Amino acid sequence: MSEWETVTLLRKKPQKASAMKTEQAVNRARRDGVPVETQHKWGAGQNKQHISSKNTAKLDRETEELRHETIPLGLGKLIQQTRQARGMSQKDLATKINEKPQVINDYEAGRGIPNQAIIGKMERVLGVKLRGKEQGTTMMPPGKK
C-alpha cells in the first residue's frame, strides 16, 4: 500500500556528571576497560576553611597574654560619680548617647573596651573631661573659653 517505512531512533540521554561519579558507574567503567582516574580530596565535606593560622605548639610557646585593653577603673568611677551627681541613671545616659545600657555598665565596671567616640559622647552629655591631663574638670559650653 504505502511505501512508508517506520524508522525508530533510540537514543540514550548522556549521563549527568553526578551519575558518572557513583561507585556503580566507576566499577562499570573499570569492567569495560575505560581508564578511570579517581582522587580522594582532603577534607572534603568538612568545614576546613577556618583553620587557625598558628599551630598549637606555637600558641603554647606564646608568652604574652593576648587580651583587649579595658577602661581604667578610675575612669569608670569618674563616669559613675558624675552621672550620679547629675541625677541620671545608666539607662538615661545610654539613651542620651544612643548606646545600650550594658555599654554604660561595662564602662563603669572597668570591663568596657575603650572607644573614643563613646567617651566623647559621654563627655558632652556629662559636661566633664574624661580624657587627657584635665580628666575630671568641668567642660565649658561650646564657643566660650
Topology of helices and strands:
Layout: H1 17-20, H2 23-32, H3 56-61, H4 73-85, H5 90-96, H6 101-109, H7 116-126
Helix pairs in contact: 5-6
Walk me through the structure.
The protein has helices spanning 17-20, 23-32, 56-61, 73-85, 90-96, 101-109, 116-126. It has 145 residues and is mostly helical. It has a domain at 73-126: lambda repressor-like DNA-binding domains (434 Repressor (Amino-terminal Domain), Orthogonal Bundle), CATH 1.10.260.40. Helix 5 crosses helix 6 (101-109). The radius of gyration is 36 Å and the shape is elongated. The model has no long low-confidence stretch (mean pLDDT 82).
Helix content: 40-55%
Sheet having the most strands? none
**CATH topology heading of one domain:** 434 Repressor (Amino-terminal Domain)
Mean pLDDT: 82
The backbone outline, from C-alpha atoms, is: elongated
Q: Give the percentage of residues in beta strands.
A: under 5%
Overall radius of gyration:
36 Å
Order of helices and strands: HHHHHHH
Q: How many extended strands?
A: 0
What is the CATH C level class of one domain, in words? Mainly Alpha
Low-confidence stretches: none
> Quick one: CATH superfamily of one domain?
lambda repressor-like DNA-binding domains
Query: Ends: how far apart?
Result: 117 Å
CATH architecture annotation of one domain:
Orthogonal Bundle
Instruction: Supply the helix-strand structural class.
Output: mainly alpha
InterPro entries: Cro/C1-type_HTH (IPR001387), Lambda_DNA-bd_dom_sf (IPR010982), MBF1_N (IPR013729)
Pfam family, one: HTH_3
GO molecular function: DNA binding
Organism: Ranatra chinensis
